[in-house]
């Protein structure tokens, strides 16, 4: 008998019919002798509907009251799922975040979980109940309703799994696992049976949006076994996200090819190479809430250097405007920008012990005549910025070169 | 400075625009130096939408989970109203039933309020907040969400007014008060400045549906000053529902004329006049969940009697079918029914001290050639059943005869 936490997202519970399907799936699991805790999101579209309502009554909706309104979305789902379970003869009990209780700090709309009271859930499970918990929400020490921010239901699932020492936390979504790359670009892409947390973080932040990054970090920290599965398929093992690479197994060097089309490149030319220059350039950009991704500073030449970074395309004009304003102050020669950039990354914990990944990547791209504009590396990832028009080609050839194509 | 509880029903908060209007009204009250607790219902249509959802996932929605789902309707409204108040510069704080807490028994979907914790509300009021409480809901001793049943928001308002010893509980609705009769039938109908609780109970149960009967009983019991007002009019004192008749004032004998068109008459002819016969006739009818209104048993004649009662028209066929089935067993000669009945009542605490109300009523109807089919009386009410086609005429002539027409 295992204790399993299952999380179903908004699409999986998007209609009464789908909620009934989830109930059947959960009841089947329970019938196999497992104990099941289910975490659910609001029905798809519901959170947006509620937010739209708040904007109609207030120009700047108060965060405390926003949480009161928005948290009703998940509350409706837990009630519906429990009555669907009872309707097919499965004992079940619902909990709002406040009822569990999932104690958070008081940062409304982006609260952090501090503690979970596992006793009442444990008692209900032992009495044969499926326990259904509202994702995305909690309560602060004063009894105020809080929410964890978008995607917070994944975090609720992982946090419950950690608190109750569950054997596994299963995230049900509309894909059947994590793939070596996007199958829409590379039809030969393979579903991974396992991926490490570190790789998953790199894949997720690079655009393979299957799991909330925060929940992956959380699962890594508390060593929760996390599995991504499809809620629309009866069979399949999904992808298991493991705490560490299994040294007993033949580890592939590269686990996947990630990419991001939404990149724009900014280069500040001829800046004096002196301490503090990076801060002088990026400080004002960060102050304007522009997220900077890759940052490259070339070696000095005649006392000046070129400084490049990438931002999302929507932020490009803002970033360039800011830099034009400080250009004279920092003594730069010019500010250049490019909206046609794209980023491709090879990710894999195996590259730690296998040298030559970078050179293989660069050679593969060179053979196709693809020019590399920027390079950035980490322990388990190599990213390059290239012209956007070569993106699909680059992903395909790298996927093949690193032996990821399905047999 | 007064402490006022204001309750706004579903129509009054039926759209973002209307919620903003309620916010303005409440803020104005607060600006006059009063302390205000607001109780709100779900936006009109929302409760029905949620109930429809539950019926799509379960044939027999579990009552505990039904309360979890349905209580979100009021939770959305409290959040929206508070953010609308803050948006116009008025401090405000929302409370769900569980947050107050409004302690109830565990009878899901029809819970009774046991206790209200007034301390947190008192503290918020003293800090200058408008306190907004979700109507219709509470929490049992185990932390389960409960609801009070339809119309329960009025009860929440009265219960809060009682717990906090408020100066007045104002029920805002879509009419501007309680009238001597329905103005659609008698254009001369007057709004009453005051009415006693007992009269209100008779008026409400007879079809003048302004207030939930249960909340009126509650207000009477705890001596809460209750006032019915329009949420769509800026001015007006509405109707005050008083605990007892004010003996210093010239009391009108009759306060209003109530009526009910949805009546059907059943007569069981020639039943043996022996103990237990009423139960033999009405027992099976009650077992079938048919609500019986008036019950008349005529004096015995040759050892048999005629037994008549009224039911709502939708229940008539069911009632007649049941009685045809037991007719032989109880020894009745025949069962007759009439779908064209209607009931008219004169209501007033003044009739206790003024004899002659009944004879005046009967004479007035006789002068118009209206035949009386059944008569039933209480301390403060006389009801008659007449042919439906005479209903409007009867209400008009009685309204005039008892001096209720506006000057």
UniProtKB/TrEMBL annotation, chains A, B:
Segment forming the signal sequence: none
ACT domain: from which residue to which, for each copy? 266-340, 346-407
Does this UniProt record's set of keywords contain Endoplasmic reticulum? no
Keywords, sorted A to Z? Amino-acid biosynthesis, ATP-binding, Kinase, Lysine biosynthesis, Nucleotide-binding, Transferase
Q: Which CDD domains match?
A: AAK_AKii-LysC-BS (cd04261), ACT_AK-LysC-DapG-like_2 (cd04923), ACT_AKii-LysC-BS-like_1 (cd04913)
Which InterPro entries does the UniProt record give? AceGlu_kinase-like_sf (IPR036393), ACT-like_dom_sf (IPR045865), ACT_Aspartokinase (IPR054352), ACT_dom (IPR002912), AKii-LysC-BS (IPR041740), Asp/Glu/Uridylate_kinase (IPR001048), Asp_kin_monofn (IPR005260), Asp_kinase (IPR001341)
Q: Might you give the EC number(s) for this enzyme?
A: 2.7.2.4
What domain of life is recorded for the organism? Answer: Bacteria
Catalytic reaction equation(s):
L-aspartate + ATP = 4-phospho-L-aspartate + ADP
**Gene3D superfamilies, from UniProt?**
Acetylglutamate kinase-like, VC0802-like
Keyword Chloroplast assigned = no
**Molecular functions (GO terms):** aspartate kinase activity
Pathway field of the UniProt record reads:
Amino-acid biosynthesis; L-lysine biosynthesis via DAP pathway; (S)-tetrahydrodipicolinate from L-aspartate: step 1/4; Amino-acid biosynthesis; L-threonine biosynthesis; L-threonine from L-aspartate: step 1/5; Amino-acid biosynthesis; L-methionine biosynthesis via de novo pathway; L-homoserine from L-aspartate: step 1/3
What NCBIfam families does its record include? asp_kin_monofn, asp_kinases, PRK06635.1-2, PRK06635.1-4
Similarity section: Belongs to the aspartokinase family.
> What is the name attached to this protein's record?
Aspartokinase
Upper taxonomic lineage: Bacteria, Pseudomonadati, Pseudomonadota, Betaproteobacteria, Rhodocyclales
